[in-house]
Amino acid sequence: MANIILIFVCFITGILLQRVKSFPQDSYKAFNFIIINLSLPALALLYIPQINIDSQIVFPIASMWIVFGFSIIFFLVLAKIFHWSKSTTGALIMTAGLCNSSFVGFPILMTMFGEEGLKVGVVIDQAGSFVVLATAGVIVSSIFASKEFKVSKIIKDIIIYPPFIAFVIAIILKFFRFEHSETSKIILERLGSLIVILALISVGLQLKISVKEIHFKEMFFGLTFKLLLAPALIYLIYIIIAKGKGLPVDVSLIESAMPPMVMGSVMAVSYNLNPKLANLMVGIGIPLSFITLAFWYFLFIV
User: Fold this and answer.
1) What's 251's domain CATH number?
2) How many domains does the chain have?
3) Alpha-carbon distance 58 to 238, whole Å?
4) Is residue 3 part of a domain?
5) What does each C-alpha distance from 175 to 4, 79, 129, 163 come to in angstroms?
6) Which of 59, 74, 96, 149 has the largest count of CB atoms under 10 Å?
7) Three-state DSSP class for 257?
């Protein structure tokens, strides 16, 4: 419950800071810089070497890749139909394709499934959502931010992007079975913990809801995909087709129904992928998700 309250406190703080004349209106850029270049790499170095992969978590991890992959296809098709710009299409993929598996996800899972469900959720977040963000998310952002498709430039953008560099280093550490000392663990945890408050305040600072500026059609399709179609797809694949049962499958379904990931929005903004739409997807998607999450839970879990 504390996490849920903190979400709204940070959003409101960011919105209120917009009205403080002495507060720099473009300060969200500094927040995003710290998140991208310091906090996100710290979390990659902290968590990825600790991930234990076994057959029980293949479905939960794969669910995040399925949602992201399907979002690419879905929004590319809609972009052709509605003639959306690359910026808008990229923003929708980076928000609707990535799940808020931790900050919103953890307290929801704890409420619905208890501690055992939370354990599955941690694996989904670390080995699923975060890895998708640090790899495929960087690639997609770079491609849709480029005015012209140049493989060399896209590869260069990916290679020099701090979260991706940290991801590669973390994989190497994992290969050599590296274990953090108590000191390194505390340092990385403290740096990583900055994400929560800075990212949410950053979204609040940029969240300017004006009826004239809201992309109703784009946001409708984005939130419909994230909150309804994505979990429906996981239900179809995991329960109807694969005949899956048990806690990992149930948690995978609920996690796929989570609202857009805040870090997906931050990354979209850092690549200038329709910042207004990216922030609205998070700002409206999170409160709306409490209704749709209850729908999925009572329809298929209870």
Assistant:
1) 1.20.1530
2) 1
3) 12
4) no
5) 36, 40, 20, 18
6) 96
7) coil
